[in-house]
UniProtKB/TrEMBL annotation:
It comes from the Bacteria. SMART domains: HNHc. This is HNH endonuclease. CDD domains: HNHc (cd00085). It comes from Microbacterium protaetiae.
Amino acid sequence: MVVCRNSRVKPREVDVVIRMNIRYCGAIRSKSPQRRSPMSALTDVSPVHSDLDELLDDLVQSRSLAGRAFAAEMFFFARVADLVDRREAERAAREGRDAITHSTQLGMREVYAEIGAELYISEWQVARKVSLASTMLGSFYETLCEASCGQISGDHATLIADSGIVIDDGAVRMEYEAVALDMAREMTPAQLKSALDGLVGRLDPEGTQARVREAAQRRKVTVRTLEPGLVRVTADVPTVPGVGSVNRLRQAAVTLFDQNAAESEAAGDGDLEAAGQSVVDDRTVAQIMADMFCDLLLTAEFSGHGTTDEARDALSMIRPSVQVTIPAATVTGARVGGAVVDGFGPIDDQAAQQLAGNAPAWTRVFTDPCTGVPVCVDRYRPSKKQRRYLQARDQQCRFPGCRRRAQKCDIDHTVAHAEGGATCLCNLEHLCKRHHTVKHDTAWRVRQLSGGILIWTAPTGRSHPSRPPGTVRFDPIGLIDPDPHFRDGLAAHDPAPF
């Protein structure tokens, strides 16, 4: 077997390793006739159990196949670094600079952007896979081989690499890998993560303490969509205050839950006056915790811990602001649905009607229920009408796969203003700073059709459409590009938003 521990692997070496692992491990195959299941010794076997036994064999083999697919993906992503270096060298040669000492990273952005668009993953995920592949082939090759042979899953292999890469000493890292592989064969990923943290702490105690201090510098809060009407707010905070905050929240929720239970019991006995209310609060502890969490953040005064008096005064002036798109008919009480928090998904009609009232901390965008075109906009801090319309239409960066919110993006001319591009709705779109640079400084190209539809063309010539999420609807002509003069006419006659 070829063993390569270099972080940069040549394509030919990768191909050899792939072929050898495929031959060594084999593809998924039918069960061997010599195999004897533990159930074969039983005389009274339920048909269901017999079928389950066979299904378990198939599931185990499918897991093995998934491990091989993960290993193959790692080998392929290991080649990306070489492509990036070559592309950067091409750009440097054309621009007359040294590719190493004066790197612009535009070659990397160009390559990552195309891989992400083709695979429908973010560029962050591309970078993550490239980094993981480099780590696997450079420092945890035995782990990758175990995955390629189906002995462990890709999740197990990823955990081993992520947890162990922090160990600088090569000999200690090899000891770690050997123990970690033994653990991985008998543990779930969740069990393995906890065990690996303890293993790293024992093998590298000083490094672990340093990493704990460094980790605190990466504290942050993020939000992402889960399902219609629900988002996940994630806080990465130091362990002690984080656990303490959640425990305090849980204690408060349990106290309120017990109080509600007593009131519910009183109401069940018909003593509503003793319960103090006519409607019983039947929320679970988890639901109460979630409601308290939002109530605290939306209504509490910030302490300004560790800040100056001036900073505390500024913090007290902060008010939450969220943009909500509401079909105009919803405000009248008609059950048309479709109200969304821009960039995060649907909300219920009752909440939309409530927000449509006098709530200056929210931006409201009313849309025609038939066309989806914004017909009225108001916000706490007024801006130019074009910007308000574009923000309602685009909602996020318009590069394929990017979800950077429009409020944090630049408004770009599709056809550059210096090249005669007009400052009109049919020639403007939101781009985050990263993709604004990709558009202007790499071989990526874009053109805009009627209705704000963008057609991006990658350096390899592959096309990637981007429809504005604020006006997504069925289009009978699809993505077929009409005659340029006809397209220009369509764009010129798009209905004005104001």
